[in-house]
Design a protein that fits this description.
alpha/beta, D-Maltodextrin-Binding Protein, domain 2, 3 domains, 5-stranded mixed beta sheet
Length: 314
């Protein structure tokens, strides 16, 4: 014979009131009125035939029976919440968190991520943009894309895109103010991002000793320098992968596409155990494929008449 159980509503009202020792706070949690909570608790006491609370002026105190009943119910409600969370989690899409710089996200990843979501549906992709180093465990990040030499202790680092900086400008500005040799940059405004030393390295490699690498406005990130170049405000020195779309569409031109060999590149970085998760393994396979296709098509987007090859920066 089944044992009689009080209503779930009255049990919830009692558990919340006992936990807060406040009818008002319990009512707020349950989204009902304090009067409704008080009524449900009294109905529970009548049903059980016991007193659960000592009702003192402006104070509730659990009786011995109430305290014992509360701790049992509290464990039961916790088990129900955990079982519900476990059940619903199975039906939720797995989350994949990718960390990268704001510029890389805006110029490279975001325009392409739709292709990944179509190729591998059912994954909740979240892009976290930051310029700081990633703490995978504390930041809840699965994979990161970082620009550098690819040396990250304790992490797997895979080279994605060889990415040397190249000068870019609006076609109309180039037509108005010719830029046939690096020396012609002396007549142009130089646009800088936070990597201000890049212009000095590039000009040194190009042999343009008389061009002042320090002049011109500085932007917080490459996005600002790229937008200024698109507006015809000057010549930006940016990583080639960030302007592939603009070059292909003719919004920008790269008069010296050979670049400067710096050894820097974009790398896919992740903890060794990250590939145990299918969403991470799928993203790795997709982005490596995209990066290879990018490198193959790169020379088509920047195809221009032959220019003097720039010597490498050591």
């Amino acid at each position: 014979m089944a044992t009689f159980l009080p209503s779930l509503a009255s049990l919830r009202a009692f558990e919340a009131t006992a936990r807060h020792l406040s009818v008002t706070k319990a009512a707020h949690e349950l989204s009902v009125t304090p009067g409704a909570v008080s009524l449900q608790v009294r109905e529970l006491e009548q049903t059980l035939g016991v007193t659960l609370f000592e009702r003192r002026p402006r104070q509730l105190v659990l009786t011995e029976d109430g305290s014992s009943y509360f701790w049992t119910l509290r464990r039961a409600f916790r088990m129900m919440r955990e079982a519900t969370e476990e059940l619903t989690a199975r039906k939720r899409a797995p989350v994949l968190t990718v960390s990268c710089t704001p510029t890389f996200a805006a110029q490279w990843l975001v325009p392409r991520i739709g292709a990944f979501e179509q190729q591998v549906p059912g994954i909740d992709v979240r892009i976290s943009t930051t310029n700081r180093l990633t703490d995978f465990e504390n930041d809840g990040v699965d994979v990161a894309i970082r620009h550098g030499l690819g040396r990250y202790d304790g992490l797997v680092s895979e080279r994605l895109i060889d990415d040397d900086p190249v000068p870019v400008l609006h076609p109309a500005l180039k037509q108005k103010r010719p830029l046939d040799t690096p020396a012609d940059l002396a007549a142009h405004v130089l646009l800088h991002d936070v990597h201000r030393q890049d212009w000095r390295l590039w000009l040194d490699a190009a042999g343009a000793d008389h061009v002042d690498p320090g002049r011109g406005p500085v932007f917080v990130n490459s996005n600002g320098a790229i937008e200024a170049a698109k507006a015809g405000d000057g010549v930006a020195l940016v990583r080639l992968s960030l302007v592939m779309r603009e070059l292909a569409e003719g919004v920008l031109v790269a008069p010296f596409p050979e670049g400067v060999m710096t050894g820097l590149a974009y790398h896919l970085v992740y903890p060794p155990a990250a590939l145990d998760r299918p969403p991470v393994a799928a993203f790795r396979a997709w982005i490596i494929g995209e990066a290879r296709a990018e490198q193959i098509s790169e020379h088509l987007a920047v195809k221009t008449p032959k220019k003097p090859t720039l010597k490498a920066v050591q």
